[in-house]
Backbone:
């Protein structure tokens, strides 16, 4: 995957996604609308799971969602979650962008400081890409806000391990009529 591009606007918006929007993305309108409704229903603490077999377009669907609704989330952060070390490093970089990681000393302190900052806000979207399972992302899940988690295979368990109060899933299947 290409290096992540980071943009910070004069208004302070942070937008980190791994690649530009696909101008040829088409279809999947119902899934995108369902995902948006679930993330913005006002209850807070929304964890959404995009799941499905490898190659069906989970990453493309999540990217399209981020680009389509970027005006509603001044902070969008894409977190590669396939490898625990990579996820930890990317999460720490989020803390630096938020200006909070410098106050913590250990990895646990940094994560807690970042989560505390996110829980004060309601304007963000975290996107965990290719998370192998719930255990790998659980330490990075705030209690409120928008989270999209994508993983391969059929979803056998929720990304929060059934412990997050507001969670639902969206199955990505091979592109077909919407």
Residues:
């Amino acid at each position: 995957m290409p290096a992540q591009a980071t943009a910070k606007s004069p208004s302070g918006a942070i937008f980190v996604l791994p690649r530009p929007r696909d101008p040829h993305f088409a279809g999947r309108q119902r899934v995108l609308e369902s995902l948006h409704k679930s993330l913005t229903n006002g209850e807070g603490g929304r964890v959404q799971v995009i799941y499905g077999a490898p190659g069906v377009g989970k990453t493309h669907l999540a990217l399209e969602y981020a680009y389509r609704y970027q005006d509603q989330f001044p902070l969008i952060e894409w977190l590669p979650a396939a490898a625990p070390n990579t996820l930890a490093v990317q999460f720490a970089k989020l803390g630096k962008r938020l200006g909070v990681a410098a106050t913590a000393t250990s990895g646990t302190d940094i994560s807690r400081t970042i989560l505390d900052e996110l829980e004060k806000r309601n304007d963000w979207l975290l996107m965990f890409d290719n998370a192998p399972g719930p255990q790998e992302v659980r330490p990075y899940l705030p209690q409120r806000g928008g989270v999209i988690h994508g993983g391969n295979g059929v979803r056998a368990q929720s990304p929060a391990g059934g412990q997050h109060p507001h969670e639902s899933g969206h199955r990505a299947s091979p592109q077909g009529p919407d």
Remarks:
- Residues 153-167 have pLDDT under 50 and may be disordered.
- The two ends are 28 Å apart (CA to CA).
- The helical segments are 29-39, 58-68, 84-98, 107-119, 134-137.
- The CA atoms of residues 26 and 87 lie 30 Å apart.
